[in-house]
Design a protein that fits this description.
The complex is a heterodimer. By secondary structure, chain A is of the alpha/beta class. Chain A has six helices and seven strands. By secondary structure, chain B is of the alpha+beta class. In chain B, a hairpin with a 2-residue loop joins strand 8 and strand 9. Classes of the chains: A alpha/beta, B alpha+beta. Chains A and B meet through strand 5 of A and strand 10 of B.
């Protein structure tokens, strides 16, 4: 009589587990990235370029998430440079680390065709972060940011 | 006299500033690249000047740990095998600090070179002086140098090709196209390209 309950619980649990990344994760093209960044917004938007294999990127992620939760005028999106053929690497990383901010995997490996469109001074090294304020003004930072540096930049730009 | 001093101070300041900016920026196409003396995984010291019968070099900033480097190792070997007989051998330089990235230590370089049987020298820029002069920003990054009257002139800076995931699906072979043009005496169409890559792991100052 009680037997069917176990598979139901298991199923629910499975669904629960995968729900976080399903809501917060998607694969995008560079065109979609441009459409997203071109949209007007009242917030200071932060696009942080990272990858699961990039140690300095992973190090700065918790500070970005913390500030995003704390400041309502900020909107953070993590842009993953991981292998588009293996999106599960990103979603399982998100689950493991409890990442709650949206993550978009930018699946365009013809890097030279788009790096300078993000910022002409970007070498292509990650981490790197693009800030867009409500006026549409852009600021680009290549390299790791400490929590303090990130807060100072946000104060200058918002 | 005072005015002259102020002007001089100002000019020195400007010169100092631009000089610094150039030093940080590294080499561009057309610049003279300096030679180096770095230890290879076989414990021998390697300099460009010691190599005979060469027309130039493919200096590749590389490492043991970056997934993009790993994806390109076989292509680096293929480049050396194709172009060393034509006078353009590969020299791979690991610029990463072993404390910041333990996987990039000299001992681990030896292991990686043995496992992949690198046919080219794999050398360690332990002091990071060479990477600073060249201005490499990420790994893997290629500097194609042409030997002209004893100088090494930069002809191309950037990625190997435009598809790290699948060598058979590459549509732009940047380095090969640059080398083929150089050997034919034709202008190089793409002299500088960019790619997503791993940062140089700098020493903590």
């Amino acid at each position: 009589m009680h037997m069917p309950i176990i598979p139901i619980i298991l199923f629910t649990f499975l669904f629960w587990e995968t729900q976080i990344p399903e809501n917060n994760f998607r694969v995008i093209s560079f065109n979609e990235f441009e459409e997203i960044t071109d949209k007007p917004s009242e917030k200071l938007r932060i696009y942080n370029f990272w990858a699961t294999w990039c140690a300095p990127c992973i190090k700065e992620m918790p500070d970005f998430e913390k500030i995003n939760k704390e400041l309502s005028e900020v909107e953070l999106v993590f842009i993953s440079m991981d292998d588009g053929r293996r999106p599960e690497r990103v979603t399982s990383f998100m689950e493991k680390k409890g990442i709650t901010s949206p993550v978009m995997l930018l699946d365009d490996i013809d890097f030279n065709s788009w790096i300078e469109k993000v910022n002409e001074n970007w070498s292509g090294a990650i981490p790197a972060t693009l800030f867009i304020n409500p006026e549409g003004e852009r600021h680009f930072h290549e390299g790791q940011l400490s929590e303090q540096e990130l807060r100072e930049l946000i104060n200058q730009l918002k | 006299m005072k005015k002259l001093l102020i002007t001089l101070t100002f000019l020195v300041g400007i010169f100092h500033y631009t000089h610094e900016a150039i030093a940080q920026k590294g080499y561009s196409v057309g610049d003279k690249a300096s030679d180096f003396k770095l230890k290879s995984v076989d414990e021998k010291w390697v300099s460009m000047g010691d190599q005979e019968n060469v027309n130039g070099f493919l200096v590749i900033f590389s490492c043991n740990t970056c997934p993009f480097v790993v994806a390109y190792e076989d292509r680096m070997i293929a480049l050396h095998e194709k172009y060393a007989p034509k006078g353009y051998p590969v020299i791979a330089i690991n610029p990463n600090d072993a404390q910041a990235s333990p996987g990039d230590s000299f001992e681990n370089m030896k292991k990686r070179a043995a496992a992949k049987r690198f046919p080219f020298p794999y050398v360690y820029d332990e002091s990071q002086e060479v990477v600073k002069k060249y201005g490499a920003t990420n790994t893997p990054q290629v500097f194609l140098l042409e030997k002209e009257k004893g100088d090494y002139i930069v002809k191309y800076v950037g990625a190997i090709d435009n598809n790290y995931q699948d060598a058979s699906a590459v549509s732009k072979r940047y380095v090969e196209e640059a080398l083929d043009a150089l050997m034919e005496g034709d202008p190089i169409k793409e002299e500088k390209t960019k790619a997503i890559g791993c940062t140089i792991k700098w020493k903590k100052s």
